[in-house]
Amino acid sequence: MTEPYRPVPTAAHLPGKLTITLWDFSWFVRTGPGEPFEDLDAAFAGAVERGYNTIRICAMPYLLFGSGLDTTALRLGPLGGGYAQQVRWYDVATETTIDAREHLLELFRAAKRHDCYVIVSSWEYQQSPAFAAEPDWYRALHAIDPEDRAVELARAHAALIDLLASHDLADRVAFVELHNEVQIGHLTAGLDARGDDAIVALTPRLERGLDAFHELQPEVPVTVNYAQVPVAVMRSIPANLDVLVVHPYIYGVLDALIETYGMRGPVEDFPQEAARRDLLRPGAPDIGDWGLPPEHAWRLDAMIVAKPEIYVHDWADAATIDRWLYDHYGEHRLAMAQKLTLWLEVAADHAERRGLPLVFGEGWVGYTPLHGQFEEGPVGAQLCRFAMSESARVRAWGSIVCSNAAPQHPMWADVALQKEANALFTG
């Protein structure tokens, strides 16, 4: 009989609870003048003020340690043509140039100065390369056979840990994620499967990647994470991960908006007149007449948000969308709360059965427009409080006030809510 996998334990010096703020890829693409990460020390100081002790980032692992590209003057900036300037995470305002490896080290030095920790992840098969001035990073990633992508990410992450150790910074790493939301993005290329079937089919690739990292860094916990909570296929979560990380986006009323207006469907099925009547600002172009300039078209494959969703976020009135969500919230209120509790309990049960620490690295309502107030308004704020209380009840190791509670989002200004929610989680 095969012995069950024994997870790598988390380091004894780490906090008893991780209060997480999601800095994703924004921490390196939003470094220009006036951008939220122009001053890393100020960003960390703001995080500590709000009750956070951990950030979660795309650490650019394959770019820095696998691509072979020169990153000493990495040029980054907006997607081009004003595209996605009203979309969360995509609204990069200014061009910037960084020495990417040195910038990574400076982030970890700043984390040490502010006694914070870092969840090291990658968004490289989802968004990160889309903000580079040139497509070389994107092309290097996609040149890898899909069967080998998790292993190559593992090797890159292991080299990143070696770099941090050589600078006495490896103690800042809470744990490593090979990649963000593995079932959504280009890690599933070639599987000919969707939804839960894609999660099942992806598992052998992920297990090979986790094995490769364990061989290179046997003392560092490593995992992958999943969008939502894959309640129907929890059996397919890799047997050799060290932390269970899931993202409980419950959507509910937001799903109703997305389905009503075809925001994640094909462009040809987009209900243009209904959207114009109900959501769009005066003067909005038709979706067929709008998009990225041709010279930037490669970026569409380097990111994963559907064009109709970006179009609605760019051209709708955010207050109108908020009103739509409030108008329909009553139809979904109970189901959303029940789904959140159920998902957290399922995740907690799976983690306990396998002896894994449990982390909710993103979550709650879902992908709202940049200037929408639903998630920090009276309904969304109460969901944040409820979710953090439930995270504490199921004994999660780490949780998040809300995915929108980070320096690159307007919700960062609500200091009181973040302090309150983090206190509900830490007790």
Automatic annotation (TrEMBL):
It comes from the Bacteria. InterPro entries: GH (IPR017853), Put_cellulase (IPR024778). Pfam families: Cellulase-like. This is Sugar-binding cellulase-like protein. It comes from Occultella aeris.
